[in-house]
């Protein structure tokens, strides 16, 4: 449906030139979002897919292991949309404080993303409300180190920003002037807490994501925080017990359409086209996450069975395999320190896994060697190549 516009324009001067900055109207849309017919079927399918994903804990022997790596995969993907070049392996190496040849700024950026998510989830579990204060706290974590740490971490912007182009005058989109940011974010917070809108959680998340991106309340990090907002809303709305649904890969694979649909909401008020895209992404992503979990369960079972048949050394080799399931990139020193194994025992057990084709050594060195659980990372890395 075309609503002509979902906001108004305010003329402002920035960087020495006049520009028309877009100020979005408060949510929900007027006229109301059309939710019947095919869109209702999309919503039902997406909700069912999220329900299957939420029940994943009954499928996995240890769902926290899956969550550990899946969150890190999402951090890499979401940061890649912003142009970082780091991989999941880079991040896991960074967390071991061993990053040979890795782009440090990029990895720090991805690590900050994890810190922001973990802070947000921890606060929600404490009973802290989903609020602008929480968004600011998460932004402070997101921008705490590396690139962007000089862009007012944890504070709504007090100057004009823009998206695309070399200057405000040729930008693809100019968000609200700085004096409008606080009122716009206050209206968004109010919408998040309204219980009488009649909107299901998925539709609320779809609308809130666009609104956040249109306000662009921070000087930097808006895209990543806007994507995190989706995960927080689904958890806060009790659709997911754990933050397991991330749309970054879907947005990355359909990047041009994603940006086009955001623009269409602002210029023509076509919320429906955006919502259809969002729901398709939710269904596809939830289904993919369940399939990934099943593949990992099959992999773990097969590799455990093979390792158990390896004779007298099986017990220690199984301990090392279990450690690789927890962290698919490991050093022997980390293994000894965290799992109370002697260096010779750990080295021999790891070599058994290398000989079996389960693990692989990355460095080619005799000292400070790094081992990787190849098949595990291979499954998680699908779609994770930098743009």
Could you characterize the architecture of this molecule?
The longest helix is centred in the last third of the chain and has 38 residues, at 271-308. It is built from 15 helices and five strands. It has two domains: 7-291, Fido-like domain (Fic-like fold), CATH 1.10.3290.10; 309-380, Winged helix-like DNA-binding domain superfamily/Winged helix DNA-binding domain (Arc Repressor Mutant, subunit A, Orthogonal Bundle). The strands form two sheets. A three-stranded antiparallel sheet has the order 3-5-4, sandwiched between helices. Strands 1-2 form a two-stranded antiparallel sheet. The protein has 387 residues and is mostly helical. The chain has helices at residues 38-54, 63-81, 88-95, 104-125, 132-142, 178-193, 201-215, 222-236, 248-253, 255-268, 271-308, 314-326, 332-339, 343-355, 374-380; strands at 7-14, 17-24, 329-331, 359-361, 370-373.
Structural class: mainly alpha
Which oligomeric form is depicted? single chain
**Could you give a short account of the major beta sheet?**
3 strands, antiparallel
Number of helices: 15
Series of H and E elements: EEHHHHHHHHHHHHEHHEEH
Please indicate the percent range of residues in DSSP E strands (runs of 2 or more): 5-15%
In total, the number of strands is 5
> Could you state the CATH homologous superfamily of the largest domain?
Fido-like domain
Task: State the separation between the terminal residues, measured CA to CA.
Answer: 33 Å
Q: What's the CATH class of the largest domain, please?
A: Mainly Alpha
């Amino acid at each position: 449906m075309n609503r002509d516009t979902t906001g108004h324009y305010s003329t402002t001067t920035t960087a020495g030139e006049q520009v028309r900055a877009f100020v979005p109207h408060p949510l929900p849309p007027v006229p109301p979002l059309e939710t019947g017919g095919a869109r209702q079927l999309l919503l039902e399918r997406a909700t069912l897919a999220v329900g299957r994903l939420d029940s994943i804990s009954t499928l996995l022997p240890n769902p926290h292991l899956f969550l550990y790596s899946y969150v890190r995969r999402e951090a890499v993907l979401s940061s890649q949309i912003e142009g970082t070049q780091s991989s999941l392996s880079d991040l896991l190496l960074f967390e071991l404080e061993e990053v040979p040849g890795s782009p440090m700024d990029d990895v720090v950026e991805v690590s900050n993303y994890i810190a922001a998510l973990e802070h947000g989830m921890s606060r929600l579990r404490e009973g802290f409300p989903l609020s602008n204060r929480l968004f600011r706290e998460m932004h402070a974590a997101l921008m705490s180190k590396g690139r962007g740490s000089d862009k007012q971490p944890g504070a709504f912007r007090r100057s004009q920003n823009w998206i695309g182009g070399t200057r405000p005058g040729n930008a693809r989109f100019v968000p609200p002037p700085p004096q409008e940011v606080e009122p716009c974010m206050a209206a968004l917070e109010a919408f998040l807490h309204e219980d009488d809108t009649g909107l299901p959680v998925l539709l609320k998340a779809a609308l809130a994501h666009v609104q956040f991106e249109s306000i662009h309340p921070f000087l930097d990090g808006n895209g990543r925080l806007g994507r995190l907002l989706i995960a927080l809303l689904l958890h806060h709305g009790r659709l997911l017990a754990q933050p397991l649904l991330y749309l970054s890969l879907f947005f990355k694979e359909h990047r041009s359409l994603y940006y086009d649909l955001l623009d269409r909401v602002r210029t023509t008020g076509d919320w429906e086209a955006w919502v259809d895209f969002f729901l398709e992404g939710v269904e596809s992503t939830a289904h993919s996450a369940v399939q990934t979990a099943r593949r990992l369960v099959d992999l773990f079972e097969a590799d455990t069975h093979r390792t158990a048949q390896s004779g007298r050394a099986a017990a220690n080799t199984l301990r090392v395999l279990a450690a690789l399931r927890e962290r698919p990139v490991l050093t022997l020193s980390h293994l000894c320190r965290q799992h109370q194994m002697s260096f010779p025992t750990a080295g021999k057990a790891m070599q058994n896994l290398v000989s079996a084709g389960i693990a692989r050594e990355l460095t080619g060195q005799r000292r400070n060697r790094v081992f990787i659980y190849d098949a595990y990372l291979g499954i998680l890395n699908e779609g994770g190549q930098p743009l």
